[in-house]
Amino acid sequence: MLRLPDAAASRNEIALTFDDGPDPDVTPKVLDILDSHHAKASFFVIGDKAAAHPELVREIVRRGHSIENHSRGHSNVYGFFAWTALRKDIGAAQDIIAGITGRPPVFFRSPMGIRNPMLDPVIAHLGLRYITWTRRGFDTVAGDPAAVLKRLTHNLSAGDILLLHDRRSRARRAIVLEVLPALLDKIAAAGLKPVSLPSAMR
Ligand SMILES: [Zn+2]
User: Fold this and answer.
1) Ligand 1: distance of its center to the CA of 9 in Å?
2) Per-residue pLDDT averaged across 99-123, rounded?
């Protein structure tokens, strides 16, 4: 899926998505900022991190957001996984998340957006839908919050899917926390409503 469905766009909805968590330091702060702006989002968690912080995963759900699948181990050789390895990795993340929340994810996004020729059949086999994004902030590689904000908001429109990360960069900086309040203000000023992916599928 490249954009939200027309029905969601006609309701002025956009999707905020956060990859690579849950992170015990950054994720709770992201949740507080979302709450203060009455915004809902989707968290594409890494299965191993979810298993390490199940209480944080439950807290994300308790606050009205959705948990989706971003692989079990976030391997940087994902593009080379064969069918069995891919099915095992994505299936393990499904099981970990369903075991914590009681709901298996509906959406999958691969590590670093890597495409693998086996991916489509594997996620179809697991009953998942592949999702990309329309805008990414490069919040874990950029050093300038203003540039990240501009990338995410330039010509922002209903149906957009925004990609951010609820973790620190290698430079130990959580740009997402610097950008998110201003981003949510701009979204509200544009008359747009951030919703979780399941809610956008209504
Ligand atoms: Zn990732």
Assistant:
1) 26
2) 93
Among the options 6, 19, 37, 144, which is catalytic?
Answer: 19
Q: Which residues of 132-143 are buried (b: 16+ CB within 10 A; e: fewer)?
A: ebbbbbbbbebe
- Look up tokens 């008359």; give the residue: 191
- Count of C-beta atoms within a 10 Å radius of residue 131: 23
Written as six digits, the tokens of 57 are 């995963």
Residues within 5 A (CB) of ion ligand 1: 19-20, 111
What is the dotted CATH code of the domain comprising 6-200? 3.20.20.370
Asked if 100 contacts 58 with a C-beta cutoff of 8 angstroms, the reply is yes
Is 19 assigned a catalytic role?
yes
Measured in Å, residue 99 CA sits from the centre of ligand 1 at 21
Domains of the chain, by residue range, sit at 6-200
Q: Is the dihedral of CA 24, 28, 29, 34 positive or negative?
A: positive
Whether the pTM exceeds 0.90: the reply is yes
Summarised one tens digit per residue, pLDDT across range 70-97 is 999 999 888 889 999 999 999 999 999 9
* Whether 165 is catalytic: yes
Mind listing the pLDDT tens digit for each residue in 1-18? 889 999 999 999 999 999
CA of 165 to the centre of ligand 1 (A): 8
The residues with which 108 forms a beta bridge, in sequence order, are: 69, 130
CA 151–ligand 1 middle distance (angstroms):
18
